[in-house]
Amino acid sequence: MEWYQWLAIACLAVDIAGLIIHLTRLISLGKPKDLSHQKGDIVPSLMYAFSGAMSPTRKESAFLHIPTYIAGIFYHLGTFVSIFVFFFFLAQIAINEPIAQFIAGFLAIAVLCGFGILIKRMVIKRLRTLSNPDDYISNLLVTFFQLLTAAVLLHENWQPAYYIIVSILLVYIPLGKLKHAVYFFAARYHLGYFYGWRGVWPPKKI
Amino acid sequence: MGELSKDKIKKGLEVFANQKDSKLHAHLNACVHCGLCAESCIYYNAMPDEKFVPAKKVDLVASVYRRYKTLTGKTIPGLVGARKLDEATVNEMVDLLYGACTMCGRCNTHCSIGIDISFVVRTGRKLLTNMGYAPDALQSTINSALETGNNMGISETDFIETLEWLQEDLQMEVGNNAAKIPINETGKEVLYTLNPREPKFFPLSISAMAKIFYAANESWTISTKMYDVTNYAYYTGNEVESQIIVNRLFDEMQNLGAKKCVLAECGHGSRAFRWEGPNVIGKSYPFEVLTSVELIAGYIRDGRIKLDPEKIKDLVTIHDPCNLARSGGIVEEQRYIIKNAVTNFTEMTPSGIENLCCGGGGGQLAMSEYNERRIKIARIKAEQIQKTGAKIVATPCHNCVDQLTQINSTYKLGIQIKTIAEIVADALIID
What we know:
The complex is a heterodimer. By secondary structure, chain A is mainly α. Chain A is 73% helix and 0% strand. In chain A, helix 4 crosses helix 5 and helix 5 runs antiparallel to helix 7 (133-154). Chain B contains 22 helices and eight strands. Chain B has helices at 6-17, 23-30, 42-46, 54-69, 71-75, 77-80, 87-98, 106-110, 117-130, 136-148, 156-174, 197-200, 203-216, 233-236, 239-256, 267-281, 292-301, 322-325, 332-341, 371-388, 398-410, 420-427, and strands spanning 190-192, 220-222, 260-263, 288-291, 315-318, 344-346, 392-394, 416-418. The longest helix of chain B has 19 residues, at 156-174.
């Protein structure tokens, strides 16, 4: 293996350690505690929190912002695919050319979505005022991660740049807003628990 | 901008330390600043200024958290927008967390991540309260409740007198001198609470409920010592004051030995006592707590009261109080009641747990400094009501009644605003 591959492995270890710290903190703080008399059911509410409540038919943040919502879906799928491909690279599993080209094509769409979201953040005042450097850095790191994944799938000589970006991204994840990879699930769990306890979710037809 | 004393900052930051579970930690670390929550907020919709975006309010609290409680925020604050707790931050927090949020929770359900934004706002309010920045007008409402036992400062003598003449009215109305508004009686099935606005401004809503109890042949009583269902300390996040208020009603339930505590039509009062109360005092209630809306729906379902919907022919719509519907799951009950009590009913769009806040929640009605904003955001509710064409708006919350009354007058809606009990009392068939 080349030095940049070792670097990426080291940074992966840092990333995992960082995320474990976040996860441990969440677990040590404990599950929701509520002394009021429970009215509803938790499990159906949690299931709804992670499914129906997120669907574009129910969530205003989705159905009022369809282009952003779709871009976000592609962008996140692009990230998951890139992570998957990264582990293939680490395990030195060869990806055959047609599949590599297909993935690269898909990632090109995801990259466009990522840049689109970034441009939106820069152009729209309400997003610009809400943003801090972390928002831009996080977007750029993930978008370049996807871009370079596509590049490496097509041309091996992009490997040094790819692994350097991967390394920076991995170290950065636990420090900035990309840690929402962990906290997204925790926040939705708490919201589902809260509404389930009180019998609000899943919503009943009126 | 001015620095704050270390002691003051320490007091404020205590809110991040005393966590009973991982909820606050999860919600403070989850926001990605997507800003897609903007359109779910009545403040932003009425006044499209970026400072009213719910994510901005979350960020105000989270940025302080990052500055003092995270490695990145402590070492490179500029990178993650971590903010120092100084006068500028405090002023902005007071303005947005107290003055630009009703804690209606509509943004919670629409947040792309699932952040309990109203919970974060309340945490921010608590931080400010710990530092001594709770708005004076809101605090004086709490002080009144702490000093006199009710937020309107009604003396026990005046309250008893009011109940006595209401009892005479009830006896005349139902044609039975044995009809009673029982006070301070022990061992009853129901201890009924009130919003102090009722004895002060809307005594007929007490009559309405008394008439329903009479028709249902309920075993009930009102305490003259502790009847106030409200708890404005919930809105400032002052746990000590909130605890005193919750404990008073808890103790009165024990003293009078009632089986059920029935909460008057008050959104935040119901939430503060039923859902938050046990957590504030650190113990579960050994008695049942339910809202009067659930109780009345039960009376109709069990055939304990009979209604004649022909008595109310005007088109009626329901305004769902946020604390009752979105944060309490009470949605079907008020519809079941109204559909049984009136001939013509129509829904607002959206309604139920999706309903739009009237603008009076979160203690806004008690904070006169934000009156102008409160009336501006109410335009959205006014338009929503107008679209229904309804002549009567029924709402199970006295706070909402107050705000809707102001909306009615400001936006010239020409409607009547009634509580659920008032509508039921009008439709009651007394045998």
